[in-house]
Design the sequence.
């Protein structure tokens, strides 16, 4: 089965999602990625260190979910996500942390915050998130609430290979990924933004798989619309990551930014990226395909597989 995924932001919020569950379930997409989540920091008014934020709203604080996820008795974010899974069409749901920003009026610094203010090192020099930290307790609350979610996506765009902070940010990714599995999620996926981040992403994924003892890093969502263009270095990275686990390599997904593009353009983009190395593709983001998600989903799949171009729709 070809993977067809999309990232979504405010259009997938607790209040917006219920009205589009049937539309998403009726599309040809099979993976939904909720984003973007961020790590709270006291420098932002109203936030505590380790709060979990969905865009600009606090979703978990003090080890508990907030009313943001259940604003009224009839609106339940987890229930809406469960309906997506129950449809039989959506088989994977992920929560994505990070991104390029801007957020809170400035750049994204989620993994910088982890590195500088939360992460510790054990006696063997392995980075970790303390179980007593608010971040750990809040993510544990997420796991308890989001029982239908398969894993967490790491979209770290705060540094690049060779930068002075590359080592610390890599360690923050490792600590965060290990915590994701420790609290009970099954998978970690990555969203590399550019070819000059391949060392960081490979090193983090290898360390996570080694720490867990199996292949939990399951997908690399490559931002071909950003700075990813050299597929060969990512296939090599996937092989190294799989070797560090139980031999199962992460699946590679090609990516397209749908902002301002009709479905014909999306089809053409994925057709140009067609390769047996890709297990599927994703689009950024649902807002840009919301007028015809079924058509855009078909464009992703058929573009990658060489199928017919669907009747054009959009731009949305």
Sequence:
């Amino acid at each position: 089965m070809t993977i067809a995924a999309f990232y979504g932001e405010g259009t997938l919020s607790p209040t917006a999602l219920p009205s589009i569950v049937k539309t998403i379930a009726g599309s040809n997409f099979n993976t939904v990625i909720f984003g973007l989540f961020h790590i709270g920091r006291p420098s932002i008014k109203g936030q505590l260190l380790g709060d979990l934020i969905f865009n600009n709203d606090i979703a978990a604080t003090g080890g508990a979910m907030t009313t943001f996820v259940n604003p009224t008795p009839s609106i339940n974010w987890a229930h809406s996500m469960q309906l997506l899974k129950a449809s039989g069409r959506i088989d994977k749901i992920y929560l994505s942390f990070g991104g390029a920003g801007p957020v809170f009026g400035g750049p994204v610094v989620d993994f910088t915050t982890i590195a500088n203010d939360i992460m510790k090192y054990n006696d063997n020099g392995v980075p970790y998130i303390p179980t007593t930290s608010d971040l750990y307790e809040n993510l544990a609350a997420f796991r308890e609430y989001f029982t239908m979610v398969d894993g967490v996506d790491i979209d770290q765009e705060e540094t690049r290979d060779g930068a002075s902070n590359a080592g610390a940010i890599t360690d923050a990714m490792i600590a965060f990924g290990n915590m994701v599995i420790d609290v009970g999620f099954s998978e970690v996926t990555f969203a590399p933004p550019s070819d000059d981040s391949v060392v960081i992403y490979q090193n983090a994924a290898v360390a996570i798989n080694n720490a867990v003892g199996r292949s939990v890093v399951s997908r690399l969502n490559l931002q071909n619309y950003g700075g990813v263009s050299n597929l060969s270095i990512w296939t090599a990275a996937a092989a190294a990551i799989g070797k560090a686990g139980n031999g199962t390599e992460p699946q590679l997904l090609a990516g397209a930014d749908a902002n301002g593009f009709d479905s014909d353009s999306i089809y053409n983009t994925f057709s140009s990226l067609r390769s047996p190395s890709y297990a599927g593709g994703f689009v950024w983001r649902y807002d840009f395909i919301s007028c015809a998600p079924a058509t855009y989903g078909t464009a992703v799949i058929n573009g990658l597989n060489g199928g017919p171009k669907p009747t054009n729709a959009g731009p949305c």
In short: The domain at 3-305 is CATH 3.20.20.80 (TIM Barrel). The longest helix spans residues 166-182. The CA atoms of residues 59 and 68 lie 6 Å apart.
